């Protein structure tokens, strides 16, 4: 597939979003944190939804491994086993549940909920689109069928980050 000037700009924009996705998430969290109060009544529901998101991420990384932590799109790998049989992007789905869980725990204006979820859906839809384009262009795709608990080791930082976020939320009470 040949790229026109506009397509190259869109591709570059999506790659930049992907590269800085962690920083974008932190900035989004800080904005929500500053403008929110805590909805303590929803703590347990929030915790369950965040935990569900973490499970999706763990199941995704169980097969994907360190490839998922890359700052660039990976075009030579595709996972077809485990949770990937049912969900093409379980890590993205996990991120969505984690976001929903945190939003449930916050009292922010309804517009903030809408904007946050809309931005997330648009951002991750662009990631999915770019991955599909890359897979269609690449003729040599390696299928990953192996799995390992070692692949989940990187998720320790996600767990620590989630605990830190809940700790920061409780400081606001």
UniProtKB/TrEMBL annotation:
Keyword annotations: Membrane, Transmembrane, Transmembrane helix
The keyword Transmembrane appears for this protein: yes
Main location per the UniProt record: membrane
Subcellular location(s) of the protein: Endomembrane system
GO cellular component: endomembrane system
Keyword Transmembrane helix on entry: yes
Chain segments annotated as transmembrane: 18-36, 42-65, 86-105, 111-129, 149-171
InterPro entries for this protein: Phopholipid_MeTrfase
Domain of life of the native organism: Bacteria
The protein's name: DUF1295 domain-containing protein
Naturally occurring in which organism (per UniProt): candidate division WOR-3 bacterium
């Amino acid at each position: 597939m040949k790229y026109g000037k506009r397509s190259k700009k869109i591709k570059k924009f999506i790659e930049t979003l992907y590269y800085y996705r962690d920083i974008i998430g932190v900035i989004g969290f800080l904005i929500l944190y500053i403008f929110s109060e805590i909805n303590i009544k929803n703590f347990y529901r929030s915790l369950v939804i965040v935990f569900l998101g973490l499970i999706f991420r763990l199941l995704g990384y169980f097969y994907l491994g360190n490839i998922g932590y890359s700052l660039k799109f990976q075009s030579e790998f595709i996972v077809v086993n485990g949770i990937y049989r049912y969900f093409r992007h379980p890590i993205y789905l996990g991120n969505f549940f984690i976001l929903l869980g945190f939003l449930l725990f916050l009292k922010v204006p309804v517009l903030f909920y809408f904007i946050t979820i809309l931005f997330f859906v648009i951002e991750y839809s662009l990631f999915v689109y770019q991955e599909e384009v890359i897979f269609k262009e690449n003729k040599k795709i390696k299928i990953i069928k192996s799995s390992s608990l070692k692949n989940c080791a990187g998720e320790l930082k996600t767990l620590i980050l989630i605990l830190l976020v809940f700790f920061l939320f409780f400081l606001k009470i």
